[in-house]
Design a protein that fits this description.
By secondary structure, the protein is α/β, with parallel strands linked by helices. The chain contains 9 helices and 10 strands.
Length: 255
Amino acid sequence: MSRPLLSVEGLDVRYGASQALFGVSLEVMPGTVLAVLGVNGAGKSTLARSISGLVAPLAGRVTFDGKDITGLPANRVRRLGLTYVPEGRGIFPGLSVTDNLRMAVAQEPRNERAAAIDRAIETFPVLGDRPSQRAGSLSGGEQQMLALARAFSISPKLIIADELSLGLAPTVTETVFRSLEEARKSGITIVLSEQFVHRALAMADSCVILTRGRVGWSGSAAEAGEEVLNRYLGEAETETEAPSVGVGRTDGNNA
């Protein structure tokens, strides 16, 4: 039996006097998709940032591909093959599309960089039509495509996709999901934090639901039926006056 590609054990994260995660544990097997769900303030983005090396944990352990990466800086985590694509694009708005992709592959061997950029553009051909355009002047959907293209260009082992559909039109959202599905078919493991609950579950193998910084429920995506979703998401949405499950956001500017 293969070992988990990613293992999180007892992760605690604190921002000043406020604790955002309490003993969070999860595992992600190679080549699978984990959906991380939760309402506004549940801790989804904090979890993603902690795994990726952007936020130092107070306690706990993160193991990736057999290596303890707890507390490693984000650049070292990325070099190991774990790429974080954040809510809010994650691009360099002042640089051109081509220069954004060049920055992404800068740590790759020189003779492999051009091919890596070509692979990324093949996934999102619209970017190939705008090589010189400043990234910040692209539409929101095109910026998200560029963020994903940057991630795909380095052939990561695992992508953490944090609310990629936020603010996108439905047709663009579907393009984003299709690109993630293609990444999965190529063997990339995915941790998916997403506002469209049912769409995320349809793609996922397993699911973790965070409630106020703790794991409220975990299991296979197939087991996360309406009863589970209503219990762990519906009640909390009533408290925060969030939209209904699967229709609107389940997480805003979460801690």
